[in-house]
Specification:
InterPro entries: DEAD/DEAH_box_helicase_dom, Helicase_ATP-bd, Helicase_C-like, P-loop_NTPase, RecG/Mfd. Keywords: ATP-binding, DNA damage, DNA repair, DNA-binding, Helicase, Hydrolase, Nucleotide-binding, Plasmid. This protein is of the alpha/beta class. The chain is built from 20 helices and 21 strands. The protein is globular.
Length: 638
């Protein structure tokens, strides 16, 4: 349902009292009108005086013909014009005719329509032709959606705060309000109504029809781990399995790097296989896939764990002893792979789809492609959930389990430097190297070949050369997506073995790379990266415990929005609090049938966000009133 993004009064106003650049309706007589090349210009005489009038509309346009006729006929005309000041002179430009159906009304303004002929007032005029029919159809559709919620009318009005007004009147007045206050009231009602419908749709999500029966105790495989699982980790395994058996279609596992998400996911996967199920583990990179595959094989050598790869990589990994395949088969217990799983699953269905580092993968990839409705449980794991998932957690729409404790104490101090503090950062890096620790530089640009807007960014290639001059090639390594796989692998090997002390890279190392003794990361031009990316990079530091450092250094003054975002990173060390802050900064995304991971959650409304605060308020009212949502008459368990 498309609603106005702003309103415009089409009552006659004052061309003298409004500000430069504003729009106003004027009434007067066109005293002259002529064209010169592509420009039409003339004069309009109003009760406030005479004003120069100009237009760049084509000679054949309706407005040009109307002005030419008005100049010859000398009849009074009303125009919507834009005020423009040049020196001490006030001009009126871009005149528009006001359709008779809109005269003297306060009308809605809508986002630009793809059909050019329906932009501006033309859209409002066309809407007015079919308005009552559209109102009736919209009201009928909304009432049909509401009826499935089985809410008493009085309770419904209480939740959406619609007292003494009918739905049809709300729909009419949100488009053609008597005043701004009335428009805001009607919009607020529809915002809450959209929130309620979204809550109801999630409450009625398809449940697991016949969950598998787990054959062993939850702790049956805990002794396979090389360490004793913490209470949090054990509780997360137990909670995820319980949520599945209660029919929950999805759950979320949250934990920063080093808190043990992988061992929790592995234990959950083992129970699914033990119960006769099939598991897919989707990861964003082959590097992370190697890590998870290796851990699964070490934990459960008796299972058929397969690493799904493209055909170009099969031979190389097979030589290294990996159980590899290019296509999913029903004989596999657990399949580990990137998005290649989606394209090569050969109609094989899964009982558990575990998406690790979910912020790196698209919503449609996770849910639409791999999930069999009524059968598959979707487990999302991340240190920093996308705003869409985080909103579901905050609103209680999905079970989630957080693991917060590290096996060894760890802290990463994050500091934002200004663009003129480069020397300070250089000294900090030299101090870190002098203490025997390793340093990682992250650049947002690979080479100095790019032109234009990227010229003020530091590129990885140039920075590498700068540090080679200080410490030599044996100590400084370079890795990024523009180099060959062999070169990158050698750089990582050198860093892990201790030969390399400084690694200059791009976001190539964002996820899945562990460098022993790495205690310092410097991110250059951090304003060009998102909060989640920055936190993932920060997670590479101090993996074995201790105090690490994350320095953020732009190379030019940054915008206020970027400053707020980077300060948010500095103020939030753990992923959960950072994801919550990111939710408030970026919006929650589409929690309906759409695919937006952040930004506007539309649902019923078009061109407007369903605000997180509005959604939260509706949920609180529903819960405080013990209202039942869904056709079953039972409130969904979170």
């Amino acid at each position: 349902m498309r609603l106005p993004t702003d309103y415009l009064s089409l009552n006659v106003g004052s061309a003298l009292d409004c500000q430069d650049g504003s729009t106003v309706v004027v009434r007067g007589v066109i005293t002259r009108w002529q064209r010169h090349y592509r420009r039409g210009y003339g004069e309009i005489s109003t009760n406030e005086g005479r004003f120069e009038l100009s237009s760049f509309d084509p000679a054949s346009s309706e407005i040009n013909q109307a002005l030419r006729f008005a100049a010859s006929d000398r009849h009074t005309i009303e125009l919507l014009v834009k005020v423009k000041d040049v020196g001490q002179q006030r001009y009126l430009t871009t005149p528009k005719l006001i359709p008779d159906s809109l005269r003297l009304k306060r009308v809605g303004l809508y986002k630009t329509c793809r059909v050019k002929a329906l932009n501006g007032l033309s859209y409002s005029a066309k809407l007015s032709e079919y308005f009552e029919g559209l109102i009736a159809a919209s009201a009928s559709y909304i009432r049909e959606r509401i009826s499935s919620m089985q809410l008493p009318p009085a309770k419904l009005r209480e939740v959406i705060e619609a007292h003494g007004i009918q739905l049809e009147d709300v729909l009419r007045e949100v488009h053609y309000p008597s005043d701004t206050a009335r428009a805001q009231t009607c919009f607020s009602i529809l915002q809450k109504l959209a929130s309620l419908l979204m809550v109801a749709s999630k409450a009625c999500d398809s449940r697991i029809d016949a969950p598998l029966t787990f054959k062993k105790e939850v702790n049956a495989y805990f002794d396979r781990a090389s360490f004793c699982l913490t209470d949090e980790q054990q509780g997360a395994v137990r909670g995820i399995l319980s949520a599945y058996q209660q029919g929950a279609p999805r759950s979320v596992l949250m934990g920063d790097v080093g808190t043990g998400k992988t061992i929790v996911g592995a234990m959950v996967a083992r129970h699914f296989v033990d119960a006769g199920g099939r598991v897919a583990i989707m990861i964003p990179s082959v590097i992370l896939g190697i890590q998870i595959y290796t851990e699964l094989v070490d934990l459960f050598p008796e299972l058929s764990v397969c690493f799904l790869l493209n055909r170009a990589e099969l031979a190389r990994f097979k030589e290294r002893g990996f159980n590899v395949a290019a296509e999913v088969s029903e004989s596999m217990d657990i399949v580990v792979g990137t998005s290649a799983i989606i394209h090569n699953r050969a109609s094989v269905e899964f009982d558990l789809v575990w998406v690790d580092e979910e912020q790196r993968l698209g919503v449609s990839q996770k849910e639409a492609e791999l999930v069999t409705v009524g059968r598959t449980h979707l487990l999302l794991s991340s240190a920093t959930c996308i705003p869409r998932t985080q909103a579901m957690l905050e609103l209680g729409m999905v079970p989630y389990f957080a693991i917060t404790r590290y096996h060894t104490p760890r802290q990463v101090l994050t500091e934002l430097f200004s663009h003129n503090q480069v020397v300070d950062v250089v000294h900090r890096v030299q101090d870190t190297v002098a203490k025997g620790f390793k340093v990682l530089f992250i650049c947002t640009k690979r080479e100095s070949l790019q032109e234009g807007s990227q010229q003020d960014r530091v590129d990885a290639q140039s920075l590498y050369q700068d540090w080679v001059e200080v410490y030599g090639k044996d100590s400084v390594k370079l890795a990024h997506g523009g180099l060959s796989k062999e070169v990158n692998d050698q750089a990582m090997t050198d860093m892990k073995s201790g030969c390399g002390r400084i690694l200059v890279s791009t976001t190539f190392v964002e996820v899945g790379v562990t460098i022993p003794n790495l205690m310092h990361v410097v991110i250059i031009n951090p304003e060009n990266l998102g909060l989640m990316q920055l936190h993932q990079i920060r997670g590479r530091v101090a993996r074995s415990g201790g105090v690490g450092y994350c320095d953020l250094i732009p190379t030019k003054p940054i915008s206020d929005d970027s400053l707020i975002r980077l300060k948010t990173l500095c103020e939030n060390e753990d992923g959960f609090s950072l994801a919550k802050a990111d939710l408030l900064l970026r919006g929650m995304g589409d929690m309906g049938d759409g695919t937006a991971q952040s930004g506007q959650g539309k649902g019923l409304l078009v061109d407007h966000a369903i605000e997180f605060e509005s959604l939260n308020a509706v949920i609180e009212k529903v819960e405080s009133s013990s209202l039942m949502l869904g056709t079953s008459g039972e409130k969904k368990q979170s």
